[in-house]
Amino acid sequence: MTRVRLAGTGVAGLVLAAAGGFGARAEGPYTIAYASFAPLNTAIFIADADGTHERMLLQGAAMDVNPAFSPDGRWIVFGSRRRGSVDLYRVRIDGTGLERLTDDDGYDDQPAVAPDGRRIAFVSSRSGDADIWVLDLRTRALRNLTAHPGGDYRPAWSPDGTSIAFTTDRDTPGARERTGARFAPLQRTQIYVMRADGSATRRVTTGTSVVGGASWSPGGRSIAIFEASPNHWQVLSRTFPSGGVVESQIVQVDVATGTRTPLTRGPGRKTEPQWLGGGRLAYLVSETEERPGQGYRPRDYWCERIRFADGRDGPAGIFTGARWSRDGARMVFQRSIEEEAPPVAPAFSRDPGFRLVRTGPFPAYSADGRRLVASNSSFRVAGLGQTPPTGQWQKPTQLYVMDANGSHRDLLFADDTTGALGATWSPDGRRVAFGVGLNQPRPGFYGPASIVTVAADGSDRRTVAGGM
Q: Cβ contacts of residue 87 below 8 Å, gap of 6+?
């Protein structure tokens, strides 16, 4: 058995631990445990345009995300892990007639239905890169429109169906950038426009800001986007508290000339613009500090309400991925529906030689692969014997030990004033070592830390380095 620790990039993986399969021969198959910042599960909801009469669209959600109406308002297309990999599905607005539209081990998501209702543009990783593909709903023929090594995302059809705008990081190093002391590289994106057949691709936006979420104006002459500095976007795109107010703006860009016109100003999150009927422009907004007690839930992207470009407020609430029907009568959106993770949850794997399970942060298998130790992942304020400055957060964590399948879970370490992370087993499986102290410190505020070992049943605690 070989155990591996790997720092994740982005919001997906945090730390991995690998073990031989339960009782399997040494050369495999293997089980890999990992932690994730992503929501545990999300479902799609539909409501009237003012947020009333909200209901879950479908039962049995499995990371149902990025819903979009068909032009006639009768169908909703979305991405889901209902059968393992992320594929496209569609369902009637009353929740009947669920149909799987794609079937590939790659990532198929972020659908946008063409104005004629016959084609769907979407993002897929089936080529090995994140590209914009188009699906013909009648023939089920597929075509890669971008075929570029950069990442291409969030396709949006022009009102006449002749062009597609999309977000891309093709002009920046992206994940290849040297990060230095940062947790992850700064993402920088621009908006491109191409013809519906993938030809005549050209860049529309300029500058070094992060931009995205293109929505075409009713006349097709401009697009609305969000815009933020790379530093602010790195916080905007997180699902955990930033400790302060960040800023993004909604901007209108002329497609022919690239001329930009700011539509909003001031601090706070402003994302996901969409032009509605009658020329109204809606977007999601949050203007308060992202802290528990102000409506924040750690597994939701932050959102306080919907607002319109004319300054009017729409309904309040969490409306991630909000989209409106063409007639403006209904809205559809996604929201987290699970708050407590099971100790071990099966996850989709593209390789049958590797079984994936999602656990708490920093999982570690014992040498024989029969036992697993991992942290929990609940956010709270901690004291460490003193009150952290305003906006300074720590993540007190508890360690649990369990059988490799998540059963017989026992508390190994808990302390309300500090956290524990990075556990590792002794070769004989009798003891566990881990770090104790302030984890995820905010800049300028650090606490004491030490290395501790305990017996596998939680007894005989010893501090072997440092000191609290």
A: 79, 80, 100, 101, 102, 103, 104, 108
Q: Are 80 and 122 in contact (CB under 8 A)?
A: no
- The DSSP call for residue 232 is H
Token pair belonging to 34 = 């990992």
In terms of Cα–Cα distance, which of 441, 440, 378, 371 is closest to 406? 371
The CB density around residue 129, as the number of other CB atoms within 10 Å, is: 16
Q: How many CA within 13 A on the CB side of residue 96?
A: 1
CB of 204 within 8 A of CB of 258? yes
- What are phi and psi for residue 411, nearest 5 degrees? -75, 125
Question: What distance in Å separates the CA atoms of residue 248 and residue 20, rounded to the nearest whole number?
Answer: 46
Which range, of 282-291, 333-342, 384-393, averages the lowest pLDDT? 384-393
Task: Grade residue 289 by pLDDT with cuts at 50, 70 and 90.
Answer: low
* Amino acid in position 450: S
pLDDT digits (tens, 9 = 90+) for 6-41: 222 233 445 567 665 444 444 668 899 998 877 888
Torsion, Cα 56 60 65 66, to 10 degrees, reads: -60
Task: Please state, in angstroms and rounded to a whole number, the distance separating the CA atoms of residues 92 and 357.
Answer: 32
Distance CA 265, CA 302 (A): 18
At 231, is the secondary structure helix, strand, or coil? helix
**Longest distance between any two alpha carbons in the chain, whole Å:** 72
Report how far residue 88's alpha carbon sits from residue 109's, in angstroms, rounded to the nearest whole number.
6
| Whether the Cβ atoms of residue 395 and residue 384 lie closer than 8 Å to each other | no
Strands across the sheet containing 269-275: 269-275, 281-286, 305-308, 313-316
Place of tokens 């700064």: 186
Q: Which residues contact 459 (CB under 8 A, 6 or more apart)?
A: none
Sheet holding 449-455, edge to edge: 419-425, 431-437, 449-455, 462-466
